[in-house]
Each structure stands twice: as structure tokens, then as C-alpha cells.
Amino acid sequence: MRLAGRLGGAALSLVMVAVLGFFLFRVVPGDPVVSMTRGRPTTAAMQAELRAQFGLDRPLLSQFWGYFTSLLQGDLGTSFTFRRPVADVILERLGPTLLLVGTSTLIAVGLGLWLGVRAAWRRDSAFDKATTGVALTLWAVPTFWLGMLLMMVTGDLFPSRGMRDTDTAPDFVSQALDVGHHLVLPSITLVAVVCAEYMLVMRSSLLEEMHAPYLTTARAKGLRDDLVRRRHAVPNAVLPAITLVFLRFGLVVAGAITTETVFSWPGLGLLFYDALTGPDYFLLQGLLVCTAGAVVVMNLLAELLYGVLDPRVKVV
Amino acid sequence: MSRFNAARGLSRASGGISTFLSHRAGVAGAAILVVAALVAVIAPLLIPADALDVTRVTAAPWQAPGVEYWLGTDHTGRSVALLVVQGAGTSLFVGLTAALLAVGIGTLVGIVSGHFGGLVAGALLRVTDFFLVLPALVLAIALSTVLPRGLGTIVLAIGLTSWPSTARMVRAQTLTIEARPFVERARALGGGHGHVIGRHVLPSVVPLVLVNATLAVATAIVAESTLAFLGLGDPTRISWGAMLHQAQLHGAVPQRAWWFLLPPGVAIVVVVLAFTLVGRALEAVVTPKR
Predict the structure, then answer these.
(1) Contact between B99 and B216 (Cβ < 8 Å)
(2) E-strand spans in A29-143?
(3) Which residues of chain B neighbour A276 with C-beta distances below 8 Å?
């Protein structure tokens, strides 16, 4: 029953995402078609076509119904700048973003958890103070600025624009090496942003376990210090940090927008930037609905996963 | 009775101040904020308008730091040092007002959904959880894209998207307080909604809200700089994020113009860190370790 409730809640959230996407573009003051075509040569016929596409000539309820039914069929409208279906444009850019976000999340989780465990185990040591200080500072650093700094400091060491060079040999190994070379700076930027939070959560989560009676028992059995940590304390403390990977998916998405913009990484984040500079409202609406939908699904996964990992929390 | 309360309040306040003072990082943060606020208020009075007018500056563009311009000049020949000082006002103003808006909405939603049960509370909770999950920055970007450019839009975009965490926390605190016997007593004596909220719930919520607001300012300043960097800021105003937008647009990185890139970024980091440290010190005051 709880499972059905969770699924129902997520479904309701998805509907709310759709409603949000619809109304966001109804708060545009004035005529959205005019603001979208500002500074571009457009004929009256093109404007009328755009208006029909928005459904601006119909009553609000019928507009919403049209939007909602096409959304269910995967139709997100046509992009004004790309002159192609929004869904196709988004799918095309999904790969590079998954590569960047996936690599960065894996590194950030590994590094963050390791640092968090080390910091908490030796609380108030120099290492603990240093890592907590660095984490707080990183939290205050705007992502895009960090990216620009890295670019300037490394100079010509790493490519700073795009995902691959045009003159790379077409075989798989050289292509993979080239993409990897391009991936270095953007992923460092994204890791720096997300890692700090994993580290702080892992640290506080382990600190809560530090005085648990079962650790005293483990020590009384004569276990070595790092065995107590690895086998007893960490497995219990790691749960909140693991679900955080899914819960903080939105943070990664937001970080990806600025990172991809700084490094011209051809993914969804850069597409977001293209959509807002247009402005291309259909593209922006599609991106908003897709990312928000993905975040809702990730959140549901986090709740379900927690129930599996920690039997004390009954979800199913 | 009232004299007793006043005395207790005084001793609590002085205890709080001494707890805050024992957090050295928090004191340092507070000192930085005082300096930043003074700079933001005084700077516009001291800087001649000519110095920041692109059409009237006389210095060469992209000048490295030197005797005359000790932080160099930007792509139009304006002094980077003056731009950073001038930008403090915008960043602080947006940070404070957006945080105030977010915390205000959050407090209202939190108290209403915590105090009044039933359908309204359920719906509010549902909406809060929904917005809590969504990435605030993405929503803020979408909002400031569709609204006309300006300072008000930035404040709205950040404020309207970052209230849910405050609402969650205030709701939890409201529920905790209302379960206490003295609130039940107040109700039994005939205290209405206004009395319970005003005399019991609000006073217990305010300290937490204050901590939340301080941390919210830090988040809002980073959000402002991000929106400005993406070109969504007020084009008529100088802010740290807008400076970095210009730096990116005019190729400060390939030109190795570090003096145009470092100062605004460092300013953001220092002020945001200061708000974070003050917030953490306040948190220690409000929730003493048991």
C-alpha cells in the first residue's frame, strides 16, 4: 500500500511538472510570439503559424488539453531556432550530458564518501578541519567561475571547447581518448561542486554513528580500528549518503547547465543556454518538463532504494 | 511576571551573544559582512559617474594591474577595482531581498500548513514537497527568461523558487510546538488561532527562520551571479555575476586577463562564505548542543 502511495505521489508530481511547464509560458507579459521573434525577420504568416502552435487562438482549457495530450504522446512542439521537433533535439543532446554527469557523479560520490569517512573518523583533526573548510569554500564558489579559472590556469594543457576535435582519427581508440581529453576540465568543475555536499553528509552521518554501542562491542571484541570503521560503522552510515546521490540529482542538473555553457560541451545544459538566449520557448518548456520529470523519477528511486537498503524503513 | 520574563530574556540574549562570539569563524564572517555592507552603501557616493561610463573612460582596455589602475581595466577601459566595489550593492541587494522573499513565503506556508490541518495543509505540503525536489536554479532560469529583464525579475525568480526548505523546517517546528502542553493550555483557556500563532508559534519559529534567512542570502547571491552570468541579469546594472558574464563574452580567459576574472569571483566567494559562517554560528546559538 505504501508502495502504491509512493507511485501515486510520483505520478501526481509528474502531472504537476506538466502543469508548471504549461503555465510558466502563460506568465510571459504581452505576446510570446512577438518576444520570441524580436530582432528576426519574420512574416505575418510565420507569426500566425507560431500563434497556432502555441494555441494562443484557443481558450485556455482547450490549450492545456492540447498541450497535455501531445505531451503524453512525446510531442513537445517544434523548436523555433532548430526548426525541428523539440523531442528530437533533446534526445540528440542526451548522450554528452549523460557522459559528463555520469562520470562526474561517480567520481564525486567516491571522493566525497572517502573524504567524509576520513574526516569524521578523526574528528577535529587537522585533516577534518581542512576538508570541512575546503567543502564550505567550494560550496560558496559559483560553478561557472571555477570552470573559467580552471580553463585559465591549465592554459593549453586541456581543450576548453566542445567534446571532440574535428581532425581526430575516426577509429574508436583515438576518438575515445579525444573525448576523454575534452572531458577532464568540465568533469573536474562538476565534481568540485557536488563532492563537497557528499563529503559533508557522509561526515555528519558517520559522526552520528560514532558513539553507537555496537561500535564499543566491536572494539571490545578486539577488532582493529580500520576494521571497526570498514565493517561496522561505514555500512550503517553510508545509507543517507547513497540516497543523496539520487536526491541531489537536481543540483547536478543545475551545475551541468553552467558547466556546459562555460566549456561549450554539446549537451542538454548548453541546449538550455541556447534556449534562453533565443529565447526559444518551446525548447525551454520541453527542457524544463524533461529535467523536472527526470528529477521526480530520481527522487522516487531514492525512496524505493532506501527501503531496499535499510529494512528498518518499510516502503514496500 | 513580566519583569521575570524580561530578565530571563536578557540573560538568554547575552548567553546567545557569548555563544556567537565563541565561534571565531562566525565573528570573522560578521566582520566581513559589515565591511561589505559599508562598501556597498558608500561606494556609489564616492565613485564619479564618469569612471564607470563606457563612453567616457579614457584608459586603454585590457590594462594589466598597475600603479594607476591597481586591478587593471576591463574590455572597455573601466577600472576593475571600481566595478567590483560598485557591484557589491547589486549582489547584496538581490541576495537580501530574494532571501527575505523566500523566507517570508516559506514561513507563511510552513505555519499555515503546520497550524491548520485538513485539506489546505495537505495541499500546501504536497506543493512544498514538489518544489523542494525540483532544481530551484533551473526554475529560476526559466522564470527570468520569460519575464522582462530587470532587478525585480531576478529577485522574484530566486525568491519564488527557494522557499520550500524554509517551509518544511517551519512546519516541523510548528508541529513540535503545538504538541507541547502549554499550547494545549492556551487553547483550553480560549486562545484563538491568532493568539496561538502570535504568542506561541511565531516566537519559537523566529530564531530558526533567522538562521535559515542568513544561509538563504548566501544561496541567493550565488544564484544571482549565475543568472547574471547566463545573461539574464539587469543589463543596466553592474553586479559581480554580470562582470563575469562580460569576461566570458569578451574572451578574458583566452586573453589571460586574470585581473578581470579573479576579483569579482573572489568577492562572491568571500561574501557567500561570510554569510554561511555567520549562519552556522547562529545555528549553534539557536540549537545548543545537548
Answers:
(1) yes
(2) none
(3) 141-142, 145, 230-232
Grid cell 557616493 — which residue? B45
Mutate to test the interface with A, among B24, B134, B250, B259 (most CBs of A within 10 A): B134
H-helix segments, B135-190: 136-146, 151-161, 164-178, 181-188
Residues in A closer than 8 angstroms to B225, CB to CB, are 142, 145
pTM: 0.89
Q: State the best of B133, B144, B239, B268 to mutate against chain A, taking most chain A CBs within 10 Å.
A: B133
User: Residue A268 phi/psi, 5° resolution?
Assistant: -65, -35
* Cα–Cα dist A299/B171, whole Å: 21
- Asked whether A76 and A282 are in contact (CB, 8 A), the reply is yes
Tell me the three cell numbers of residue B135.
532544481
Query: Would you say B74 and B80 are in contact if contact means Cβ atoms under 8 Å apart?
Result: yes
Any CB–CB contact under 8 A between B232 and chain A? yes
Is A276 close to B232, i.e. CB distance below 8 A?
yes
| Residue A42 pLDDT level (bands cut at 50, 70, 90) | confident
- Using the CB atoms, write b or e for B253-279: b if 16+ within 10 Å: beeebbbbbbbbbebbbbbbbbbbbbb
How far is Cα B159 from Cα A294, in angstroms, rounded to an integer?
A: 24
Q: How far apart are the first and last CA of chain B?
A: 28
**Is the distance from CB of A310 to CB of A238 less than 8 angstroms?**
no
C-alpha cell at B27: 565573528
Percent of chain A as helix, strand, coil, to the nearest 5: 75, 0, 25
- B147: contact with A, CB 8 A cutoff: yes
Quick one: average pLDDT of B108-118?
90
Q: What is the tens place of the pLDDT at every residue in A214-246? A: 888 988 998 888 888 888 888 888 887 777 777
For residue A85, cis peptide bond before it (omega within 30 degrees of 0): no
CA distances from A307 to A6, A70, A212, A311 (A): 12, 35, 22, 6
Mean pLDDT of A134-150: 91
User: Please, what CATH class does the domain formed by B9-286 belong to?
Assistant: mainly alpha
Domains of chain B: which residue ranges? 9-286
Question: Which of the following CATH numbers is that of domain A93-276: 3.30.565.10, 1.10.3720.10, 3.20.20.140, 3.10.310.10?
Answer: 1.10.3720.10
Of B178, B187, B136, B179, which is closest to residue B161 (Cα–Cα)? B136
Domain boundaries, chain A: 93-276
Of the partner residues B127, B134, B241, the one whose CB lies closest to the CB of residue A250: B134
Residue B261 and residue A152: Cβ atoms within 8 Å? yes
Give dist(CA B168, CA A234) in Å, integer.
29
* pLDDT for B290: 43
Q: Which are the contacts of B182, defined by CB distance < 8 A and separation ≥ 6? A: B200
Residue range B193-220: average pLDDT? Answer: 90
Q: Which of A137, A148, A284 sits opposite B269 (nearest CB)?
A: A137
Partner residue facing A144 (CB), from B135, B148, B244 = B244
pLDDT tens digits for A255-280?
899 999 999 999 999 999 999 887 88
| Residue B146 neighbours by CB under 8 Å, 6+ apart | A24, A25, A27, A28, A32, A279, A281, A284
Angstrom distance (rounded) from CA A146 to CA A144: 5
